[in-house]
Design a protein that fits this description.
One of its GO terms (biological process) is methylation. This protein is of the alpha/beta class and 290 residues long. 36% of the residues lie in helices and 21% in strands. Helix 1 packs parallel to helix 4 and helix 2 packs across helix 4. The chain is elongated, with a radius of gyration of 21 Å.
Length: 290
Amino acid sequence: MKGADTAGHQAPGPLLAEGAERLRAAGLDNPRREARLLLAHVLRTDLAGLLARHSVDMSARGAFLDAIDRRAAHEPIAYITGRAGFWSLDLETSPATLIPRPDSETLVEALLHHRPDRASVRSVLDLGTGTGCLLLAALSEYGDAWGMGVDISPDAARLAARNARHTGLAARCAMINASWASAIDGRFDVVFSNPPYIPHGDLAGLMPDVRDHEPARALDGGIDGLDAYRILTAALPSLLAHDGIAIFEIGIGQEGDMPALARQAGLEILDVRADLGGIPRAVLMQLRGC
């Protein structure tokens, strides 16, 4: 065994090289970086701690190579490690939900831009909450706010509740299992949603990491990708407080479809904000005339 000593240990360098080569052969980008992340996860350390390691025992070696095999099969790293960062939060992940992505942070940035007064937001609703990332990020910024996360998946609602506890925000929110706003009776200063928005015919062309591992129900937006938006915009007039805003994540090219849906529901587009890649990602709406 390359790099092994008589005590049954192996130096991290050759082990990382072996893992990176398996990932490279599987066609993955950044194989060396991903191998380091997976070895740090197995060793329960960070990348700095990994640099200080001189050896890896055989149990950890086996766990690392198992993780490498899972990643080589295009299972997302966030599912292998069970963790993902979002905003300033470290969140638990599972295949019950989409993995939080940096693009979705655009919605939180949009909220901060339009409601810079931290006392101006007292209630937040997140429809299709998944990990709870949007709601919990908002609550971390608006210290006087209370929120509710809703997800049709019982496993997702339970995961979001665990993340609320782990982030110390459980006393300020509730996570419930329901279909969109069907169980909600109340008005909110902010309504978030990152709904399914991939047109059904495009699902097969997604990257295998997404197509084969993330929940299809959280991706499939129907024939034109707009099914969820039709339901959500119709519900907003009974959910938004006076001067409240809705902030929805959208897919590529969907900014052109949102004004008509908003008008039909008595809403108007307040702003459209792009993510770091310059792609319109967050649509902000309010009741017409507010």
